[in-house]
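Before the break, one more example. Copy the sequence into your notebook; we will annotate it together after we see the structure.
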Amino acid sequence: MKTVHIIPCFLDIHNTTPIETTTASAVLQNIGKQHLWDDRPLPLIDTIVIHYISACDADRERPFDLGLILKIFCTLAVSSHYLIQRDGRIYQLVPDDKRAWHCGGSIMPPPDGRTSVNDFSIGIECVATHDSGFTQEQYASCAGLCRDIDVHVGKSCTRVGHHDIAGSEAVRRGFRKDIKRDPGPLFDWQLLDRLMS
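Here is what the structure looks like once it is written out:
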């Protein structure tokens, strides 16, 4: 199978992607960050976490704007390894061997039960809103990317949604204060599984 095309767009001070009147680099420097990742405590990667993100809160007229979405990452000092645009373009935001800050307080579903899911996972953000759903191009790119990650790490990774690891159990256990609901009920896990096979 053909590997997917990935566009480098690392969330570091070398990123000159325009964000309104500035750049990603300038926003990062303004918050005192060189990059939005750190070292993994162990090299293990065996989980892929699917999220969605939009710029709705920044500008309802431009919910899918790349610059505005990068601004959200940079100003909140959060990150994910990959971002998949509506047309299926894949941007790599964090190197795979580094720990992105995409899960927050988190716990794997039973029987796994491991906490701090950032430590051993790859985060994939699909650009979408609460009610937009996801495009066929995004599903195709997500499936190809997941296959490539599996090949890279040498195993079939467990795939979970952010809601699976940062939901009510994570709140009950005191790992976080809020429940995450992405990628939400409109994400078609069965379609992703079919495209993966």
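The mean pLDDT is 96. The longest helix spans residues 136-153. Try to locate both features in your own notes.
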